[in-house]
């Protein structure tokens, strides 16, 4: 029993901790160079972990130490003392090259804060550690600052993976990343969950040294289209040496995956590609299938937890029939139906290299179909193991035969065997190049075919463009003609409106001229001494002459104080119809004297001078108009004649006529009211 094993047993007894058998065998040297708590054969609690960490320094020949999954709920089982002890053991051991502390709920307080923190001691002045894996922890800003501070001067660390730490946001650290990849010349593998612009800075650093980088993991953060473009540039670079690319949860979608697939067609360095949780559907799956047909270096492709349907899986199955290098195609947790599964089973008839399709239990398939796929995969695994055993047996037999030969012949035989191995290797390389040449020829033929299709499509599109141009020109002409018609219509409407306005203006001018004429007539009437009421109607010169006759008759009647009135013995009234005109006054039973005689004489004088009607002053102002037949035609008030009543003068009493002829100041109010009532009554009848 080794010293380390004895010390481990003593510590376990003192702390009442259960011994972990796998670690005990590691202390005895019974290991394959690695110890992992994932393979622990006993439950690990805080005390058990303390005993393991305290005796790590006694592990000899150990090159990988994986203390992973050490948490309960969200609390780490590792304390700061345990982490410090583990760091001391790693720094003291010349054999440990890899330290994995993933998925252990590490925080800044446990691992990065304070002077002499475990993380700073691992990165500063380290002489043997080459790989540090800190995935799926709770590290935050303090750890990020330590990494970007000490890593540029570190000359031993080759791989660093701090991806899937939710607290890592790398705020404002793009320049530090640029400095990191400029000054650090040993780091070839890097993994982190980087938001933009840190992701852009990291990819720029990889592009500055495409022949140095081996692994890139950009998980748990969405990539921009510009980042996808940087990856495409990196994969198609002539000096690229990238072998592993992990874009889990990068939200590349069909568009980004299609661009990556085109880059994979010409890439000859990538071995492993992880595109889990990227929302890849039919378009992206078919693009990857086309890339796998021509790519001859990719051995592992992970497409788990996407949106691959039967159409995409049928395309991938076609790629499997043409590829003999792919050993892992993980399509687990995808909505694959029976059609896609049947296509995969048909492809496995000819494909002898594929050994895994991922978690088939997660696929919605029938039990028989899933069992059939597993059977074909097991056959491929068995064939691979058989070939490996045969190769090992051949090497063992050859080494045994060499031991029987003399030293000189043994050395000669070794050289011969080395030459044979080299010949086999060259043959394999030649066959691989021939396969690549064939694939390139197929790709070239496909490219020529697609170019021809593209030319035809361009010609069709050109015809459609010409047709659209003609249609557009016709529409423009039609639109122009319509615009002209609308403009002409508007012009016509404007002309009509202008004509209406002109007519209105002319009417206004005529009315204004008429009003000016009336004003002049009234002015002339005043000059001639006419009464005021004669000017209210805007009389014509003929009407003025008749009014003068009426005025003369009125003055004549007023000059006579009393006496018999002169009867009308002659005049134009005799020519009128019987019972009409001024002669009809004799039939009314009234004496032919007073206003009647004045009216008759005024009418006779007016008719003799060629007038069509006679006028008499009214008690309310203005004047009355009478026809030649003796009918009352209305009142002339203001701007003209207002036809209100049509009465015969013979129905009026002599007293009422006298009242109508009297001056306004001498009118009795009762008599005027009776006269008006009589006029209204006669009008209504």
TrEMBL record:
<dbReference type="InterPro" id="IPR032675">
    <property type="entry name" value="LRR_dom_sf"/>
</dbReference>
<dbReference type="InterPro" id="IPR051279">
    <property type="entry name" value="PP1-Reg/Actin-Interact_Protein"/>
</dbReference>
<dbReference type="InterPro" id="IPR001611">
    <property type="entry name" value="Leu-rich_rpt"/>
</dbReference>
<feature type="compositionally biased region" description="Basic residues">
    <location>
        <begin position="470"/>
        <end position="479"/>
    </location>
</feature>
<protein>
    <submittedName>
        <fullName>Protein nlrc3</fullName>
    </submittedName>
</protein>
<dbReference type="Pfam" id="PF13516">
    <property type="entry name" value="LRR_6"/>
</dbReference>
<feature type="region of interest" description="Disordered">
    <location>
        <begin position="551"/>
        <end position="597"/>
    </location>
</feature>
<feature type="region of interest" description="Disordered">
    <location>
        <begin position="470"/>
        <end position="495"/>
    </location>
</feature>
<feature type="compositionally biased region" description="Low complexity">
    <location>
        <begin position="555"/>
        <end position="577"/>
    </location>
</feature>
<feature type="compositionally biased region" description="Low complexity">
    <location>
        <begin position="480"/>
        <end position="490"/>
    </location>
</feature>
<keyword id="KW-0677">Repeat</keyword>
<comment type="similarity">
    <text>Belongs to the PPP1R37 family.</text>
</comment>
<keyword id="KW-0433">Leucine-rich repeat</keyword>
